[in-house]
Amino acid sequence: LLRMADEAMYRAKRAEKDGLDPHAEELAAELGDAVRAGQLRVHYQPIATLPDGRIVGVEALVRWAHPVRGEVPPLSFIPLAEETGAIREIGAWVLEQACRQVAAWHAAGHSLHLAVNVSPRQLVPGLAERVFAVLDDSGLPYRDLIVEVTESVRVEDPVAVEELRKLHKRGIRIALDDFGTGYSTLRYLTALPVDILKIDRSFVAKLDGTPEGAAVAETVLRLSQMMHLETVAEGVESPGQAAELAGLGCVNAQGYHFARPMAADEVSDLLTEQNPASV
Ligand code: C2E
Ligand code: MG
Ligand code: MG
Ligand code: MG
């Protein structure tokens, strides 16, 4: 018993030193079953137009309702799922749920696009075909799906690039998430078939009415215009930030100022408020 306690202590200390969740190993083992056990949920965060705040899309964000630990945030389990490979099953499940949900909103008279996060480990042969199959099944039009990838996709990986090209060729849009936070940000723009840049919330947080504060957001917006890309500002938390972004010509935004990620029912209520003529 003592030895076990010792080991547990040692592991906890090491995990702390490495900046990992001390329960990482346990969580990783449980993750494999989380999908099958029905412990995952998809929440949706509205994406709005500036300056009026009209909802034009949603981003699907996975949630894990752990039976013992309560809600585990994605930042604690997505990296684990990427390590173990469970992200493929999780990603496939999220995509299916979200496509069905957004197709249902379409059927109720709301026009809306869907953004789904895709990890580098999901970009393997056959991914594009599986995405097409899910879209065909759900009836969601290809033009209404946005695949969000971060700069952790390796541009030297021909398979990843090829899968993204296949998606792009069929009209699915590719967004670079957290844009500007990676190591070779500008390289991604020519190496990947990009349609949308998402201005990382760290740059939105710097908006303070000064030219220096706006420098990065403004540069991303100009770059987007020159390359005929769309832009979405992430993490907009205040009316001041929304106004400043609108002034810089930013058309789409997402953040607590508009709405938090929420269950589908709550999004339905917002959509009905916005569009009372819907069924
Ligand atoms: P992300 O794709 O950049 O998603 C945006 C994150 O910012 C979400 O965190 C959202 O709740 C948060 N956020 C939105 N508005 C605001 C705001 O105004 N202020 C602040 N401080 N935060 C805001 P969340 O849901 O915790 O997800 C974190 C990350 O986990 C996501 O970042 C994404 O990288 C990953 N993730 C979530 N769901 C999935 C998924 O289904 N698949 C994959 N591969 N990754 C996912
Ligand atoms: Mg995202
Ligand atoms: Mg993001
Ligand atoms: Mg982000």
From TrEMBL:
Signal peptide: none annotated. Residues 24-275 form the EAL domain. This is Diguanylate cyclase (GGDEF)-like protein. The chain holds residues 464 to 742 of 742 of the full protein.
